[in-house]
Amino acid sequence: MRRILEGASPRARVLLAALGALLLAAPFLVDSYVLSVLIIVLFFAYVGQAWNLMLGFAGQLSLGHALFVGIGAYASAALFVHFHLPPWAGVFAAVALAVLAGSVIGYLGFRFSIRGAYFALLTIAFAEFTGIAVAHVDWLGGSGGLFLPVSNRAHDDLANLRGSPTMFYYVILTLTAGALALCSWLLNSRLGLYWKAIREDQEAAEALGVPLFRCKMIAVAISSGLSGIGGVWYAFYYNNLFPETTFGTSHSIELILATVVGGVGTLFGPILGAFVLTPLGEVMTALTEGIGIDGVKPFFWGLAVAAIVLFRPSGLWPWLYRLLALGNGTRGGPR
Fold first, then answer.
1. Distance of CA 201 to CAs 288, 290, 334, Å?
2. Is the alpha carbon torsion for 26, 31, 33, 34 positive or negative?
3. Tell me: the pLDDT tens digits for 101-127?
């Protein structure tokens, strides 16, 4: 927490404390629908933070991040369905497989100097290939989907992630806070400085002795592992998985939009972006519910991203940071 608050003004500290208190008390203050929206907001904030670590910190663009979320979701769900292993045991397999997939992609990309858009295409290719493969594996439910048994939600079973929306809310809130703390620590570490150097100028970083391959592989491994954990939560919250939606490119884009809108490379950008995009998407869906127009939410999100690129290319968080004077003037820009 101390690292997160470094460079923050007293106003920023008060706002952060107020936000934390509101999030902790939210299940007791809002109805079930608003709580469900907050749950999705926090999920996008968490996965956005994981993706931000890879692009915003280390400069490696991934447009197939649904691969890691999907691997974590399917691994934990299959172990639960077939072997009755609880998610807290399945999470180890989920993280291991997600990190393995990320390491394979990273090795191929970095060893053969695949960068930028071509590296992004490599991540998309792996995600699409995995989705097609899962659709043909009956043990994983095939194209018909993998369904988790839904038990009575009268009481919370945290060990098996079976329970009320309130329980799932606090689990994803804890994961989001943990990801924020981890990314803050990494950003201020020597590794974080190496990542910044690679992001800004890879050739210059290499000339200065930064171990490019190792640093980029670590970024991919951490990002994919965090995303795999998010996949475990995703599987047990929704209780159904379909390969075409879980691994689809549209899902990958949906997972990263909050970070793009909030501010790539900042700590609070993914959180702010999720709190802006998700509720507004729900409002647009509700307003057009009786009209019979399909694809309103993706269309709206596309307009939002286009507006951000045109008017706030660095994202909403840096702009809000300066507007509210949240820095104390002793350190650099928004975090």
1. 46, 51, 21
2. negative
3. 999 999 999 999 898 899 999 999 999
Q: Which amino acid is at 256?
A: I
What is the distance of C-alpha 327 from the center of its chain?
Answer: 26
Pick from 237, 169, 174: which is nearest to 28 by CA? Answer: 169
Cβ–Cβ under 8 Å, residues 53 and 265: no
User: pTM for this one?
Assistant: 0.94
- For 274-295, the pLDDT digits (tens) are 999 999 888 877 777 666 666 6
- Can you name the CATH fold of 10-19+33-323? ABC transporter involved in vitamin B12 uptake, BtuC (1.10.3470)
Buried b (16+ CB within 10 A) or exposed e, 223-234: bbbbbbbbbbbb
- Give the DSSP letter of residue 114: -
Q: Can you tell me the distance from the alpha carbon of 108 to that of 71, in angstroms, rounded to the nearest whole number?
A: 19
- The C-alpha angle 149, 236, 158, rounded to 5 degrees, equals 95
Give the start-to-end residue ranges of the domains of the chain.
10-19+33-323
What is the residue type of 123?
A: T
Q: Contact, 193 vs 205, CB < 8 A?
A: no
- For the chain, the first-to-last Cα distance in angstroms comes to 13
Q: How far apart are CA 281 and CA 299, in angstroms?
A: 10
Amino acid at 191: L
Instruction: Name which of 231, 243, 312, 310 is nearest 272 in CA terms.
Output: 312
Stated as kind and residue range, the H or E segment containing 147 is: strand 146-147
Over residues 54-103, the pLDDT tens digits come to 999 999 999 999 999 999 999 999 999 999 999 999 999 999 999 999 99
Contacts of 294 (CB under 8 A, 6+ apart): none
301-to-46, 191, 230 alpha-carbon distances in Å: 19, 34, 22
Burial 47-75 (b: 16+ CB within 10 A, else e): bbbbbbbbbbbbbbbbbbbbbbbbbbbbb
